[in-house]
Write a structure and sequence with these properties.
By secondary structure, this protein is an alpha/beta fold. It folds into 2 domains: about 1-70, no CATH class; about 100-380, no CATH class. The chain contains 14 helices and 14 strands. An 8-stranded mixed sheet has the order 6-5-14-12-13-11-9-10, sandwiched between helices. The protein has a two-stranded antiparallel ribbon with strand order 1-2. Strand 3 and strand 4 (about 100-105) form a beta hairpin. It is globular, with a radius of gyration of 24 Å.
């Protein structure tokens, strides 16, 4: 009987000791592919202040949680457990809509402050550029979370489309030029073909439809006879690699699906386009094939994520065209939804400057006034309501 009483504490001690040994022997990881974030690295030289204020104890807690042995396996099992126990929103963010579809938890309340702050920032950009005689247009790209609505009847309705309509209504009232791109995308294109099942971005088919609508609407604003390169389905080719969808990674890659990375390139962009990338340290001529579609060179056994499939985000790209349709210089302030079509768009203009404000390190309005482009557009997916004007 006494031996049995000792069994539980001894087992617990061995478990803790085993975890500690595993933690010491295993190499710390820098990032979590599943969670798409950096993991806490151990601070081996804490200050006296950090120790006595409790800051270091909090750091150690975060470190041990992030670097816990077999952490991804624990996360995967946790997601599976949520599914089998009937939890509606996995990881409190997503629900499964059948046939491999992952959909976002509905937006059930419109945050008026966030929406108005977003509109204020767009109006500020528009007014700042108007002073210099530079036209500005805001484009909202249709986000997957707003248009893939597969929730059962017992779930609340998503207010994403209503919120987007209100944003555009407010911009019109304030005299800011705006385009709700979904209104100009071919209505015959099934919305399910526009998006990945397991990622928050659109597929090449959806991106190409957006490119066509973008060029048509921009042609009107530039008063230039520019036509998009027509989409031909037979020109599409796909990789055999497994796709690491962003939402599936958050769900520990537990959702089986048939997502594939595809391309549709009507011309060889490298023959006419020259690209200069500006980093935090320097500006240099970049190899287009190293900026776009690097996954094409991967072994078929290597999984591919969205940025590897199309393009990672850059502080600033300047793309010059030897055979443009127009001598106009256009600036695109963008988020990652623009990445698959950046060279499609560049193929029409003498110069296309692409800026990502999440990394941009200069006052935007001053930079644009000095650059003096013919038109500036800000193109964000309609779930993104943060302009990121930290340097203004």
């Amino acid at each position: 009987m006494k031996k049995l009483e000792l069994l539980l504490p001894i087992s617990f001690f061995l478990l803790i000791f085993g975890v500690l040994v595993g933690h010491v022997l295993m190499t710390d990881r820098k990032v979590s592919e599943m969670e798409n974030r950096s993991l806490t690295a151990l601070n081996k030289t804490p200050t006296i202040e950090q120790i006595f204020t409790g800051e270091y104890a909090k750091h150690l807690e975060e470190y041990f949680v992030d670097q816990f042995p077999l952490r991804d396996d624990w996360l995967r099992n946790y997601i599976v457990f949520q599914g089998v126990t009937g939890k509606v929103y996995l990881n409190d963010k997503y629900y499964l809509a059948g046939d491999g579809w992952i959909a976002a938890k509905p937006v059930i309340e419109i945050d008026e402050k966030v929406m108005n702050d977003f509109v204020d920032e767009l109006e500020s950009i528009s007014e700042g550029l108007e002073e210099a005689g530079i036209p500005f247009t805001f484009y909202s790209f249709p986000a997957k979370a707003t248009y893939i609505l597969k929730a059962p009847e017992y779930m609340p309705s998503d207010l994403g489309q209503l919120r987007n309509e209100k944003v555009h209504e407010l911009l019109r009232e304030r005299g800011v030029d705006e385009v709700r791109l979904m209104d100009y995308i071919d209505s015959n294109l099934p919305v399910e073909e526009m998006y990945f099942k397991t990622d928050h971005h659109w597929t090449m088919r959806g991106a190409y439809a957006a490119y066509e609508a973008l060029i048509r609407t921009l042609s009107e604003r530039l008063d230039e006879p520019i036509s998009p390169m027509p989409y031909h389905a037979e020109s599409t080719y796909c990789l055999k690699n497994e796709f690491l969808g962003s939402w599936n990674k958050i769900l520990a890659m537990t959702i089986e699906n048939d997502d594939k990375v595809c391309y549709n390139e009507p011309i060889d962009f490298s023959e006419t386009l020259t690209v200069y990338e500006r980093t935090a340290m320097r500006e240099y001529e970049a190899d287009l094939n190293r900026l776009y579609g690097v996954a094409k060179g991967f072994e078929e056994s290597r999984p591919v994520n969205y940025s590897e499939a199309y393009s990672r985000d850059h502080i600033e790209l300047n793309i010059f065209n030897e055979q443009p349709d127009t001598d106009k210089h256009v600036v695109v302030i963008k988020d990652s939804y623009f990445n698959p079509i950046q060279f499609h768009v560049a193929s029409h203009f003498k110069q296309l400057t692409i800026i990502d404000l999440r990394y941009f390190d200069q006052p935007l309005i001053e930079f644009l006034k000095e650059l003096r482009p013919d038109h500036v557009i800000l193109a964000y997916n309609d779930r993104n309501m943060n302009v990121y004007l930290e340097n203004e």
